[in-house]
Structure formats: structure tokens, C-alpha cells
TrEMBL record:
Family affiliation: Belongs to the class-II aminoacyl-tRNA synthetase family. Phe-tRNA synthetase alpha subunit type 1 subfamily.
Keywords tagged on the record: Aminoacyl-tRNA synthetase, ATP-binding, Cytoplasm, Ligase, Magnesium, Metal-binding, Nucleotide-binding, Protein biosynthesis
Gene giving rise to this polypeptide: pheS
Compartment(s) of residence: Cytoplasm
InterPro entries: aa-tRNA-synth_II/BPL/LPL, Phe-tRNA-synth_IIc_asu, Phe-tRNA_ligase_II_N, Phe_tRNA_ligase_alpha1_bac, Phenylalanyl-tRNA_Synthase, tRNA-bd_arm
UniProt-recorded name of the protein: Phenylalanine--tRNA ligase alpha subunit
GO BP: any one term: phenylalanyl-tRNA aminoacylation
SUPFAM superfamilies in the record: Class II aaRS and biotin synthetases, tRNA-binding arm
Enzyme Commission number(s): 6.1.1.20
Taxonomic path: Bacteria, Bacillati, Chloroflexota, Anaerolineae, Anaerolineales
Length: 334
């Protein structure tokens, strides 16, 4: 019996068969327990001998099961140590770091270049009055030039989202007059327009304004040319075209060769091979006066550039809608 039981114990591999084994070989109805319960049936002379022998067997079996229990515990521990061990040589999971939006990165690069060539950064509000966005810039109510700026109005018709950074010219002049000025005015602008690959209802602009004595159109052209060289490299081709803005006279626009198609023509440049990146001109005498400067003594130039347009050229972005589309596949490329 004892040998059989111990042999059976060898085969026990887990806790539940261990419990089974205990019931079978040490439980109430086990052979060994039967001997104790039926000891009375045995003759007086044989009883101590048989009792002693049965005790011995029971102690052996108990010792055996205790040992087996320990063995199984040790095995289970060894297995879990093996299975759950951490491989410290595995490469870690990369945390997903945040980054600056491509438009912000680009704004900062442009502003860095502008500050190298002497412009101070100046900020002005995105929510404007009709007076600053239009009137003081020589665009009276009902003037047909208002058609150039499709505007988001608030419930108060005098409060609107600025359509360009040009109202910042007036804020800067009011602050600096009669000192000379050389500022760059960055920020978001809004237009109630049809969205397309070339234009969005919201976009950044950077306004340049220089006011002082003897500032000429040559200064404007030379500054913008130098800016283009620094942004696009010294071989970039640019061109000036005459244009019209109510707040500058004369007015012009600057185009950069379209890098997207290499000048061959594409939807972005409307097949012209050129992309307009800014409007500019000499500050209109009326605007100088509205800003607190005497136009007979002072002159100035101004420009308003589209930084997203510049990013489009530098990074071959085919559609301006990518900027505010929040598509991670686009944003991750910067
Ligand atoms: N404000 C003009 C626009 O948004 C651009 C511009 C700025 C033109 C300064 C001339 C001078 O279209």
C-alpha cells in the first residue's frame, strides 16, 4: 500500500491532484485510516504492533506529501520566474512627443530671418473694428475695394475678424509716432471665402512696415529681394508685378518661381509657373496721416506676406487645406 501510494504521488503534477491524493491515501476512507478505525476489531496482543506499523506508514505518507507539496511549489515558482522574467534588452516603446505645427515652425523661421534683417516683432489683435481693418487703411464703407476682403462679421457689424494684418500698421504707428518704425507683424487672418487648394478661410500673414525719413521703393524692393534670398536660397527667381491696394501707392505683388512644378505650370500656380507670396507698396499718404505721421516729412513701405504660401513652396505642399486639416500623416512630416 505504502509503495503504491508513494508511486502515485510521483505522478501528481498540480495542486488539485495533490488534494485528490490526500483524500485517497490519507482521508477518512483511505486504507490507512480504516486500520485506525477498525483497531478495536484486532486482538489485544496484535493491536500495538499493528497500530505502530500503521502510524509509521501514515507518518511516511504525510512526510511524502509534504515533500511533494514543497517540490511542486518550488517548481511553480521557478516556472513563473522563467515566464515572467523581463527582457531588459528589448527596445523600449517610444513615447509620442508633441511638436510644433508646421505653420508655427515656418512662422518662427521667417520671423528669425526678418529679425536678422532688422525687423522688430509686433503683435496686434485678431478681432478688429471696421475702423482699423478698413477705414483707417483708406477703405471707406461702400468703396468697391471692400470686395477684395470677404469678411467674417460678428453680431456687431463694427466688430470683425481681421482680413489681413494691415490694421496692425495703424496700431504700430499710433504707438511709435513720430519715431521711425521697422516692424514685422505676424498672426492669423480670416476670410469668408470659398476654400480651395490655394486659399483657406484662415491663414497666417506677416505684415512688414517701415516708416521714416527718405524711405524709398528701392528700399522695399531690396529688402524683399534679400528676404527671398534668405528664405529660398540665392538662386531663387522672383518678380514684381504692379498691383493695387487702397493703403499703398504705388502697389506691387511679389511672385516666386513655383517649385512644385519647376515653372512648368500646375494647379497651385494656376499654370503660370509663379506663386504670389506677398502684396506690398509705399504707405499711402492718407494712411501715414491716419497713423500720426506727416506725409510731407515721412514716407514708408509696407508688405503683407502669406507664410503658408512660403511653406508650400519650400516643402512642396500641394494643398493649403493640409495646414488646418489635422491629418497626422501630414503633420508628422515636419
Ligand atoms: N493686406 C494686403 C492683403 O492682405 C497685403 C498688403 C499688405 C498689401 C501691405 C500692401 C501692403 O491682401
Amino acid at each position: 500500500f505504502q509503495e503504491e501510494a508513494i508511486a502515485a504521488l510521483e505522478k501528481v503534477k498540480d495542486e488539485s491532484s495533490l488534494a485528490q491524493w490526500r483524500v485517497m491515501h490519507l482521508g477518512k476512507s483511505a486504507f490507512i485510516s480504516q486500520i485506525f478505525t477498525r483497531l478495536a476489531e484486532i486482538s489485544k496482543e496484535d493491536r500495538p504492533k499493528i497500530g505502530q506499523a500503521a502510524n509509521l506508514v501514515r507518518n511516511k505518507l504525510e512526510a511524502a506529501i509534504n515533500q511533494r507539496t514543497e517540490e511542486l511549489k518550488a517548481k511553480a515558482l521557478a516556472e513563473s520566474l522563467e515566464n515572467e522574467k523581463i527582457d531588459v534588452t528589448l527596445p523600449g516603446r517610444q513615447p509620442h512627443p508633441g511638436r510644433l505645427h508646421p505653420a508655427t515652425q515656418n512662422m518662427r523661421e521667417i520671423l528669425a530671418v526678418l529679425s536678422q534683417i532688422g525687423f522688430e516683432i509686433f503683435r496686434s489683435p485678431e478681432v478688429e473694428s471696421d475702423e482699423y481693418n478698413f477705414e483707417l487703411l483708406n477703405i471707406p464703407a461702400y468703396h468697391p475695394a471692400r470686395d477684395m476682403w470677404d469678411t467674417f462679421y460678428t453680431t456687431d457689424p463694427n466688430v470683425l475678424l481681421r482680413t489681413h494684418t494691415s490694421p496692425g500698421q495703424i496700431h504700430a504707428m499710433h504707438l511709435f509716432a513720430p519715431e521711425s518704425i521697422r516692424v514685422a507683424l505676424p498672426g492669423m487672418c480670416y476670410r469668408y471665402e470659398q476654400v480651395s487648394a490655394r486659399s483657406e478661410i484662415q491663414f497666417n500673414q506677416i505684415e512688414l512696415l517701415a516708416v521714416g525719413k527718405n524711405i524709398t521703393f528701392g528700399d522695399l524692393k531690396g529688402t524683399l529681394q534679400e528676404f527671398a534670398f534668405r528664405m529660398f536660397g540665392n538662386n531663387v527667381r522672383t518678380r514684381f508685378r504692379p498691383s493695387y491696394f487702397p493703403f499703398t501707392e504705388p502697389s506691387a505683388e511679389m511672385d516666386v518661381e513655383c517649385f512644385l512644378c519647376g515653372g512648368k505650370g500646375c494647379p497651385m500656380c494656376k499654370n503660370s509657373g509663379w506663386l504670389e507670396i506677398l502684396g506690398c507698396g509705399m504707405v499711402h499718404p492718407t494712411v501715414l496721416r491716419n497713423g500720426g505721421y506727416d506725409p510731407d516729412v515721412y514716407s514708408g513701405y509696407a508688405a503683407g506676406m502669406g507664410p503658408e504660401r512660403i511653406t508650400i513652396l519650400r516643402h512642396y505642399v500641394e494643398d493649403i487645406r493640409y495646414f488646418w486639416g489635422n491629418d497626422i500623416r501630414f503633420l508628422e512630416q515636419f
